[in-house]
C-alpha cells in the first residue's frame, strides 16, 4: 500500500492510497480535477471516497467524481448532504483495499469531524496539523482538546495525514511562544527548504509532533510559564489560551 499527496485549491492536500492492483481511495477531495488527472496519468481505478467533515474545501469534488465512478462515499452524518452514501460513526471499520480503516470521532473543528485510521496512516482532516491544530468553528475547545488527546494515544510512528499545508505559519507561531525551543528553530529551516522546492511537509510522524507541537504539550511546565500561567494551571486552560493566541496571530 502506498500514499500519494495531491495538492489542490490554495493549500489543501487530497490523500490517495493505492494498492498493487492500481485500485485506490481518496480522502477529502475538495476539487475533482487534480484527482481525475492523477487517476488518468497512473491508470488507477477509484473504489472509494472518505470525508472527514463537511467543509466545502474537503467535499466539493465528490459530485463530479461520483459521476465518473459509482462508488461508496464514507463520511460522518454532517456530510450526508455533501455526497456521503455511507454514514460512519466512532468505531466503525471499513474494509477496503485489503486494509481496515477505523473511524475515530474527532470533534472540534466541526461538531461531527472524524478521522480514518489504518496504521501507519491517520487521515485527520483539519483536526491536527504539523506544529498546530485546526480552528474551532462548530465544536468546543474541550472537544478539540479531547480529540488531540485521542491522537496522542496512537502508535508514535503514526503518520498524520493532515489536509492543509500550514506547517511554516504554525512553526512561526510556536516560535513566537517558545523561542527557546531549538527543535522548532531547526525544524523551521528544514520546512523552509521543503517549501522552496514546492514539496509537501506532510505527513508528519506523531512522535515528531509530540516534540514540536505546542497543542500536544499543554502539560509542559515551561510552556505554562511562557504563557504566564502557574505550574498548577489545568491543561485545558493552557490549550484554550494557545488556540486563542493562534487565532489572533
Overall tally of structural domains: 1
Gross CATH architecture? 4-Layer Sandwich
The string of secondary-structure elements, in order, is EEEHEHHEEEEEEEEHEHHEHHH
User: SS-based structural class?
Assistant: alpha/beta
Give descriptors for this structure.
six-stranded mixed beta sheet, about 250 residues, Metallo-beta-lactamase, Chain A, 14 strands, alpha/beta
Describe it:
- A hairpin with a 3-residue loop joins strand 1 and strand 2.
- The protein is α/β, with parallel strands linked by helices and 249 residues long.
- The radius of gyration is 18 Å and the shape is globular.
- The longest helix is centred in the C-terminal third of the chain and has 15 residues, at 182-196.
- The protein has a single domain (2-247), classed as Ribonuclease Z/Hydroxyacylglutathione hydrolase-like (Metallo-beta-lactamase, Chain A).
- It is built from 9 helices and 14 strands.
Short description:
With 249 residues, the chain is an alpha/beta fold. Helix content is 34%, strand content 24%.
Write the layout of secondary structure elements.
Elements: E1 2-8, E2 12-18, E3 23-27, H1 33-42, E4 45-50, H2 56-59, H3 62-68, E5 73-75, E6 86-87, E7 93-96, E8 99-105, E9 114-118, E10 121-125, E11 128-129, E12 132-133, H4 141-152, E13 159-162, H5 167-177, H6 182-196, E14 204-205, H7 206-212, H8 221-226, H9 235-247
Parallel strand pairs: 3-4, 4-5, 5-6, 10-13
Antiparallel strand pairs: 1-2, 2-3, 7-8, 8-9, 9-10, 11-12, 13-14
